Amino acid sequence: MKTIMILTAGLWLILSACQDITPGYLQTEYAGYTLDSMVVKKVLDLTPPQPNPTFEIYVNNYGYTPEKCVQNGIYPTIGGEEYKRDRYGWPWTSTPIEGVEGTRPIFVNIKDITTDTGDAGKMWEVLQVSGDGTFTMPVYSDVPVGRYRISLTFTNEGYTQDVNDVFTVIVK
User: How far are the Cα atoms of 111, 119, 147 from residue 34, in angstroms, in the given order?
Assistant: First the structure.
């Protein structure tokens, strides 16, 4: 009987020592962007691209392949940097965030947008962030010229962490 009482007391001590442990983990101390800013132009260069004479010379006279020209930074057309963005409605897009680790799924939301010269409220209306931390902004918007600092919140099961002033959108 004494043995049963000792075993029961021992089992009770073991079970009472157990606590609810939050599963998984979330680490953001190394979170950041390789390119930590994105320039959004209010006025686009809509000049249609023109044939690049240098490209033509290298392909026709020096025997370069088009692929080799592109590898060397010589493209078939020049000009009209935002022509295709306007024509096809391609949004302004950042690179994904790096350095966020944890138990999946990890959700990301914009925590805060600050600016000294612009209108953060208008930026809130148009700026979107996807699950990998990529920012997207429409080609055209009514966001005023300025520098906008973005802070993010990362959340998974049981954890929430903020990364402040991690990205800058420059509207000019």
Answer: 20, 26, 18
* Residue-by-residue DSSP string for 113-170: EEESSS-HHHHHHH-EE-TTS-EEE-SS--PPSEEEEEEEEEEETTEEEEEEEEEEEE
pLDDT in tens, 89-118: 999 999 999 999 999 999 999 999 999 999
Cα 96 versus chain centre, distance = 4
At 39, which amino acid appears? V
Q: Which residue, among 71, 65, 30, 34, has the nearest Cα to 163 in the 3D structure?
A: 30
Token reading at 125: 């209306």
The pTM is what?
Answer: 0.78
Residues 6+ positions from 82 with CB-CB distance below 8 Å:
41, 44, 45, 46
